[in-house]
Amino acid sequence: MKTTLVLSVVLAAVAAKFCPGERNGNQCRAGDNAYKCSVFFENLTSSRKLTWIGALPDALKKAKNKAEAKEILGADVTEESFNNFPGCQASAANARCYTTLNKQRSVPLDSCDRNLINTSGSETIGDYLCKQVRRWKKNDSDFKANGIKNLKLPFYYSACNGPWEPVTNSGSDLYADEDLCCNPDGTFFRCDGSDFNQFC
After folding, report:
1. Which of 68, 88, 136, 139 makes the best surface tag, with the fewest CB within 10 Å?
2. What is the C-alpha separation between 11 and 140, in angstroms, rounded?
3. Edge-to-edge strands of the sheet including 148-151?
4. Each residue's pLDDT tens digit, 170-186
5. How many CB atoms lie within 10 A of CB 100?
6. Which residues contact 59 (CB under 8 A, 6 or more apart)?
7. SS3 content of the chain, % helix, strand, coil (to 5)
8. pLDDT grade for 79, boundaries at 50, 70 and 90
9. Residue 157 pLDDT more than 90?
10. Can you give the pTM of this predicted structure?
């Protein structure tokens, strides 16, 4: 009985984390003299507005080498540039994340390209994301019956231990161009019903 209770508490604590690498409630925010750019699911569950997908430069740790990192980010952005941010200006972090993520936002969800979300390129971005959605919604009866439609993917930044803030341009929040739609089995489909690439 005692073991079951302890295990339940540990599992609840793990499930309640904001992000996989969270320490002491830091929500994986950028550290001192650093900034991060992130993408989330918006309103995936009723208990949290934002559900973690991934962040830069954290996602670069999954890259096998520097060439792969350049493929993900582009040649003009390096992992080191995220950790050399002495000015700690929110407007500069927003501008840098906008520049980096604006390129990523228009990548179709049926793409196999390596990027912030899909660092391996072994499956479509949509299938990768839908597997994550299914993991979060596996006990949700509505998801099991209908899947999910028109899930928004917003981009955020954090600067110098600051909170996650929406990446904006001229007052408009930055989102992926394509909303995410998932079948109950955790596979992607286009929200408008159009054809899409299913395999990589």
Report:
1. 139
2. 18
3. 148-151, 180-182, 188-189
4. 999 999 999 999 999 99
5. 21
6. 72, 116, 117, 119
7. 35, 20, 45
8. confident
9. yes
10. 0.87
